């Protein structure tokens, strides 16, 4: 089995190791990013929904940056939302601040019943930048 090419954002490796998963894996020109939530440095949820969503995007952007990517490289997004009927308007208000300009990535939204104390999680697949050609 090939060694996984793991990407860790600065300052959060202990949190990922404690929870026994990788924040992102590089494979065949893509970056597969684990679901990111609006967790504070200690891993606890940010209580305010809008602030939690912004923090989830900030955490996502830190993982992307650690791999040399930005949200512009994202091709596929999956959003997980607890009680989407009451929360979707707030979340959709936050998206444009991070989404960038069209063309947008693909999007799948999933309503869930539990996210370990969080209301929102975002999982993405991004294209890795092509290495500089000699």
TrEMBL record:
Chain segments annotated as transmembrane: none
Q: CDD domains from the entry?
A: YjgH_like (cd02198)
Which GO cellular component terms are attached? Answer: cytosol
Annotated GO molecular function terms are:
deaminase activity
Q: Which domain of life is it from?
A: Bacteria
InterPro entries recorded:
RutC-like_sf, YjgF/YER057c/UK114, YjgH-like
Q: Which PANTHER family match?
A: 2-IMINOBUTANOATE/2-IMINOPROPANOATE DEAMINASE RIDA, RUTC FAMILY PROTEIN YJGH
What protein name does the entry list? Endoribonuclease L-PSP
Organismal lineage:
Bacteria, Pseudomonadati, Pseudomonadota, Gammaproteobacteria, Pseudomonadales
